[in-house]
Automatic annotation (TrEMBL):
Domain HTH gntR-type residues, every copy: 1-69
SUPFAM superfamilies according to UniProt: PLP-dependent transferases, Winged helix' DNA-binding domain
Keyword Electron transport: no
Protein name as catalogued: PLP-dependent aminotransferase family protein
Organism: Rheinheimera lutimaris
Annotated GO MF terms: DNA binding; DNA-binding transcription factor activity; pyridoxal phosphate binding; transaminase activity
Length: 463
């Protein structure tokens, strides 16, 4: 097919498949003709047929567009999920719904819009032509510097900018670390229970994957030493375990670091929400005690600013910098520069520290609101083992193991809680609901929300 027929067919197909939507503008005749290298008459003929058949309408000086009145039945393609992963997949799907008690997100009403807008303008105005080329593979140097300063002060690390590698989120960080360092036979240990994205990713990319249980003092290091002494990578969240929110105890931290040093193993520290600690006790990162440089620290701005920004970072042991640089150059394209520039100004000008301080106070208050509301609406059905920080609570069931059924009921009322038992890989499970509190604005709002599934909850758990 040549000439006007080819253009006609392309447009018809794009419109029928829903890629071009009713009301969307199509290019002017002379622009498309120049773009395709054909005569204007050829494009004009195709457009006239499409107009005649009702796919396009001409709006005179305002150009030509897809007919806004077009009614199309576009078939949606269903994406299937393997059965064994369907429970984890449900958790993942749930993350993107609007509703109450959503897990793992910052207070969206507190995003510093004005400051961000100001810094965006500044960053765009300051952009030089050479910055329009591919950005550096390990990240924008001023951002790497700002992050190094921040983690040194706030999380007790002792690193410099050359150790920072900017990534686009947890999965990117973990995959990059394993790609740079792991061989196919290497044993990798993950926490049980553990972050659902971590489980899914590791199941896919690691052949020799094992789990170590987590109790009230965090990862059970005794179990690790007894059963998986020969592990090469341990991936753990010591500040506030995901999802139990417990903190790895001091003796266990030392035990873990000693083991890694003797074994020449790597600890991947996922410090995703270490900023939000509410007691007076200072809680430095595990990496801050890492005299032998065996900890690869992974941080993110998803909890402190917003997940949509997709900026996270790895703090590398010094011995790994070159290897990482080499791997990143082969397997990565670097991240977009502009968000990195805005963020580096946000940190370097001191706004990040102020924002964190405000959020810490706010989250502590919001956590209390949800705890009070839970106690008021369901005084006997749940108990909470209050931890020192984090962005969610776990409401354990006082009796029974029906957390999946219960979560389903609550989700029907738009309470986006997660059943705890689904996060476990092994059979030794606890049962409860994982509840985010960062976007609850008052105790009354929490009470009203918790009352929505009241009848069904009492019917299931008893009064
Ligand atoms: C346990 C855990 N680790 C890391 C992250 C960071 O995720 P990302 O940086 O990909 O947004 C999250 C976010 O939900 C998390 O829950």
């Amino acid at each position: 097919m040549t000439g006007y027929q080819a253009i006609y067919q392309r447009y018809k197909q794009q419109i029928l498949s829903g890629n071009l939507k009713p009301g969307e503008k199509v290019p002017a005749i002379r622009v498309l003709a120049a773009d395709l290298g054909v005569a204007k008459k050829t494009v004009e003929t195709a457009y006239n047929i499409l107009i005649g058949e009702g796919y396009l309408v001409s709006k005179g000086a305002r150009g030509t567009q897809v007919n806004p009145d077009l009614q199309l039945n576009i078939a949606r393609v269903a994406i299937s999920t393997p059965v064994e992963d369907s429970k984890l997949q449900q958790l993942i799907d749930l993350r993107d719904n609007p509703g109450f008690f959503r897990l793992g997100i910052p207070s969206l009403d507190e995003f510093p819009y004005k400051k961000w807008l100001l810094l965006s303008g500044k960053a765009i105005r300051a952009m030089r032509p050479e910055q329009m080329l591919t950005p550096p593979v390990m990240g924008h140097p001023p951002l790497r510097e700002a992050i190094a300063n921040y983690v040194n002060i706030s999380r007790g690390l002792n690193c410099n900018a050359s150790q920072i590698c900017i990534t686009s989120g947890y999965k990117h960080s973990i995959a990059l670390i394993l790609q740079a360092l792991a061989t196919r036979q290497d044993k990798v240990v993950f926490e049980d229970p553990g972050y659902f994205f971590g489980q899914k990713l590791l199941k896919r990319i690691v052949e020799n994957l094992h789990y170590v249980p987590v109790d009230r003092q965090g990862l059970n290091i005794g179990y690790l030493l007894q059963h998986h002494q020969d592990t090469r990578f341990v991936i753990t969240s010591p500040a506030h375990h995901s999802p139990l929110a417990v903190t790895l105890s001091l003796p266990r931290r030392q035990q873990l670091l000693d083991w890694a040093q003797n074994q020449r193993a790597w600890i991947i520290e996922d410090d995703y929400d270490g900023e939000f600690h509410y007691t007076k006790k200072v809680l430095p990162a595990l990496k801050s005690q890492d005299a032998a440089d065996r900890v690869i620290y992974v941080g993110t701005f998803s909890k402190t600013i917003m997940p949509a920004m997709r900026i996270s970072y790895i703090v590398l042991p010094k011995a790994l910098i070159n290897r990482f640089h080499e791997t990143a150059e082969i397997v990565e394209t670097s991240l977009p520069l502009l968000p990195q520039q805005i963020l580096s100004r946000f940190i370097a000008e001191g706004h990040f520290f102020k924002h964190l301080k405000k959020m810490r106070t706010l989250y502590q208050a919001r956590r209390q609101m949800v705890l009070n509301a839970l106690q008021q609406v369901y005084p006997t059905q749940f108990y909470v083992e209050l931890t020192d920080g984090g962005m969610h609570i776990v409401a354990f069931l006082t009796s029974g193991s029906q957390d999946e059924q219960l979560a389903e009921i609550w989700q029907q009322h738009r309470l986006l809680v997660f059943p705890l038992s689904v996060w476990y890989a092994g059979n030794s499970k606890r049962y409860g609901l994982v509840i985010g509190y960062t976007n609850i604005k008052s105790e009354q709002e929490a009470i009203d929300a918790l009352r929505l599934p009241y009848q069904q909850t009492i019917a299931l758990l008893g009064g």
